[in-house]
Amino acid sequence: MSNLIYALWRAPEDALDGAMLGLVADRIAPSSSSLRPHHLVITPEEALCLTGPLGASAVEGMSAHLGAFQGAWPDWHVPGSAVPEGTFALIRSNKATTELCSDFAGSRTLWYVQTQKGFFAATSQRALICLLEGFDVNRAAAAWFLSSGSLGPTDGWDERIQRLPQGSRLVLDKRHWSLQLQTSPIAFHPKPRKANECRRDLEEILLEAIQGFDFTSGHWAFPLSGGYDCRFILSALYAKGLRPRTMTWGLAASLTQPGNDAFIAKQLASHFGLPHEYLLTELSEEPPTHVVDAFLAASGGTTDQLFPYLDGLRLWSSFAEQGIGGVIRGDEGFGWIPVSSAPQARSSVGLLVLTDFMDEATAERLSGGRQHIPEPLKQREDETLATYRDRLYHAFRIPIGLAALNDVKAPFVEIASPLLSRQVLAFVREMPDPMRTDKGLFKDIAKSASPPIPYATMGADDDRNGFLDSPVYSRWLEEELGSETAQSILPDAFRETLLAGVRKAPSPMAPNRSLRAALKRIIPTSWVRMVRAQMGPVLPGTRLLALRASLICRMVRLLEEDSMALGKARKGL
């Protein structure tokens, strides 16, 4: 993928030229892509820009799409025509209408803003802040980032910016300057089905979905893990006659650790006779400020998941040199882990609010009283807990949590997620609860298609947030929490609590990586999940909250700089 920027203005004096739009594109593009020219299309009334690797993306007139389509859609660029299948972001325009379209799963986020002077849309909020030439920090977004590590169900960093919901079409009538949003609520309707019939139908739908994407070009690579999702996709591609280039990345120690993704993935690739690489993602030697700023610049501050990118995004920026323009992802929505309560169901997908773990007065001050769970994300009276859990996964974790991880990668590569196809998710929403819980039915299908190689019990980069205990990152957290930005955003008492937690020495009883790996090999995952299901919601610890608060502060400063970029350029600064 690349990033996509669209601008429409109402009066000639508000028009953008190529230099201005190029400046915005330069700001949001990683430094490693500086030699790749932006794709610009400009008319007297509107402009379109794609920045980054185009890959499977396409431009037709003033229409463009990122990502990958499932099947052929010759009229994809025509406003009013059918919205394609696949995983993508789509903007299309003609003389009368501009349309924004999101895919069924919401795998790639589009943001938009309408003013009296213009209409702007982009896959990057930073681009919109540049075009608005101003920044009104959204307290609700900051509150959501603190509580959930995301921007929440609907919010953007600026109060004026809107998120296009998943499976939606936003229509701008250029003549009347009016917007119409066409969307459908996510509905689960479990039906009684025999297991063997349901399994047969799901397997058929899965193969059709995976094999409907065009992965024949050599620029597609397949990041391979040792889990169910990846090995089923690999089996389906192999059955179609494709031999994708495979890779795994993580820490050097993972290669020789039994039960690790890296260890298992190498065996899988060897079984299928595929070329396989192991790419290192060791902790960067650069200062944390450089690592964090690169992460926020790429992601737009939509996720707190810094730990996979502690190499400073060197891995992802190296893909272009290796001839990799796109990666096939195993993101899916087959069903989620067992839970025992509605709050735990929310916690399991990351949908926590501040009042879940702090007093109302502090939460009120942090959010300005603007953090609320939308009614569509609350459990319905006629809804089982398992159905509610999986509906939250489809309505929140995929379009908010997983899409945000795509934001980090999108400046460097195209992304396709065939298991998130419309027909797959629609079928899952009709499956009985037991067949969805812990991906039960899908795991049975995957096992039947898999070679007799053990499944991974630990990720190749499975150190998660352990880096926060290191002296260098502890110092960075302390410095950031003491900044003027932190003092202006965070209540003093809350900020002091975070600082005290950062200064406190890590527990010497915390299990190290080798011990965790040994325990995961001994204790069945099903047992662990059964125990966790009875333990209640998982709440963020002090150091994780300190990380989130620090990311907020640096993101606010980055967006403030973005908001002044065009003005400075006009003044020649």
CATH fold title of the domain at 3-187 and 564-571 = Glutamine Phosphoribosylpyrophosphate, subunit 1, domain 1
The CATH superfamily of the domain at 3-187 and 564-571 is Aminohydrolase, N-terminal nucleophile (Ntn) domain
Structural class: alpha+beta
What average pLDDT do the residues reach?
A: 90
The percent range for helix content is 25-40%
Distance between the termini: 32 Å
Query: How large is the share of residues in beta strands?
Result: 5-15%
CATH class categorisation of the domain at 3-187 and 564-571:
Alpha Beta
Please identify, by name, the CATH architecture of the domain at 3-187 and 564-571.
4-Layer Sandwich
Radius of gyration, CA atoms, in whole angstroms? 23 Å
The dominant shape is globular
Biggest beta sheet attributes: 6 strands, antiparallel
Q: What is the strand arrangement across the widest sheet?
A: 2-3-1-9-8-10
Account of the protein in words:
By secondary structure, this protein is an alpha+beta fold. It has a domain at 3-187 and 564-571: Aminohydrolase, N-terminal nucleophile (Ntn) domain (Glutamine Phosphoribosylpyrophosphate, subunit 1, domain 1, 4-Layer Sandwich), CATH 3.60.20. 39% of the residues lie in helices and 14% in strands. It has helices at 18-28, 125-132, 139-148, 195-211, 228-239, 261-272, 288-299, 314-317, 342-348, 360-367, 385-409, 422-428, 433-436, 440-449, 471-481, 484-489, 492-503, 513-522, 525-533, 542-563, 565-571; strands at residues 3-9, 39-42, 46-51, 58-60, 63-69, 86-93, 97-102, 111-114, 118-122, 162-163, 169-173, 178-182, 220-223, 245-250, 276-280, 326-328, 414-416. The two termini are 32 Å apart. The mean pLDDT is 90.
